[in-house]
Design brief:
alpha/beta; DUF4350 domain-containing protein; 449 residues; 10 helices; 32% helix; 2 domains
Length: 449
Amino acid sequence: MVNGTTGEDYLIMQRPPIKQSSRRRSHSLRTMLLLGFGMLCAASVGCGGSNVLPVEYGPSRGSAGLKSVNGFGGLRETYESLGWETRSINRLGDRMMHLDAIVWTPLDSSTIRWAETNWYENWLAEGEKTLIYIVFDEGSSADYWRSMVPLANPDQRFEYRRRAARAQIARDKISSKPAELGTQGWFSLETLPVPQPIKTIENAEEAVVFEATSDDAQPELLYRVVPFKESNPSNRATINLPLTTVTADFSDEKFSTAEVSLTEYLQTADGLPLLTEITSPEWNGSKIFVVSGGSLVTNYALTTPQGRITAASLIRESGTPGKLGFLVSDATGIRVSNAYEAENRKTGMELLTVWPLSLVSIHLALIGLVACLIMLPIFGRPRKGKQKSQSDFSDHLNAVASLLERTDSDLYARQKINEYMRRVRGETSGPWVIDDKPPQPTEKTGESP
């Protein structure tokens, strides 16, 4: 440290001059970063006890985003704790124009295409927008394993050194190739001859805000951010044919013509930029920040003073909390679409894939599947049901009794019971036996014969 200045105190040393409100905001930001640092340290200890260390680069949400050494979940949660509303995006279009800031994390150092540049130019022209571009450098795997070697048990140090060497080889493969990033008018990258460790950090006024006091492993820089270079010989290829020689240009000829200025917001003592600010009069107050390496703001990087200073400066300069999108792109680039263009307009069944119908399409499909299963016939030979015996006389009696009940005639029922008692039971008297003698006529009194 210089003059008793700590890495966290850097939060209140930056421009513009500090007011009471900004002092409170800086104090809050410092508190959040320290809290995030403690959580990430605990997560690192937990990962150390696992046989497999998550090293996926780029994610900022979910288990991989929080547990991976090369994830950006710590950076995203810090934004959220300060009031930013974050979301993950996978393309650029009209619906993304309302975002106030975008954190772009490419998974390789491929060229930024003209379609992407044009969309960003239109978005930045809206005013008060912030684009954060994080240069790909394989992440912090090598830095993590190097820092863990002194903390490992003696019998495990060789394995830690082996993993550190493997991660360093993967990083060296990138640094051994010339930088191919042509950013269409904003900036270019130059590959450093040798990776440079970050031991000292200076701000835009060349005031030292951090200086390493030990010989421990420090994060390294692979690239230098420089003004845009129009010519890029690496994109040209010469093809020798029998009769002629053809030179093919595979570069994207279109690039931004906006007049931009680059400011090294954070840099090393050797003048290597860590955080570069790009501005243009045509952007109406919008700006681009280029982080010279993903290893400066990954989950592991936030456990180092260099990473915390870089992240603190980045978050503070992102502007007033608003809507923030985290974008991850691969070698195929970013899909840029306009929902109102004819070629992107959905028709027919394609409408089920368009928001908001896409929210209920899967539910309707599941309900339809359940309905089909309900109406699905049962295949196979049907089983015969159990039939009652027709020789059971009690069934006959029950049937007769049921018929007698339907007739609703008491005399008819007594006659049938009488018939049964006489013919079947052989009874000649009893309560249910009716006398067969015809009724005798009665004599009438008071009349002459």
